[in-house]
Amino acid sequence: MQILIVLALISIAVYTCGFGVTLWKEKNKMSALAVFFLTATIIILPFFSIL
User: Fold this and answer.
1) In 10 A of CB 35, how many CB atoms?
2) Which pTM was predicted?
3) What's the chain's average pLDDT?
4) Where along the chain do its domains lie?
5) Neighbouring C-alpha atoms within 13 Å toward the C-beta of 42
């Protein structure tokens, strides 16, 4: 079950990071940095509750 949760988190993080790259290319640097911070949060925080 944990593998399924980790795969879901990684897929959400990859999609969100792709949106951040799109924002960066459109010269929205502050928004892109916020999205990258959100992506890092999506990856890091669940491990505190799972592990």
Assistant:
1) 20
2) 0.73
3) 87
4) 2-50
5) 19
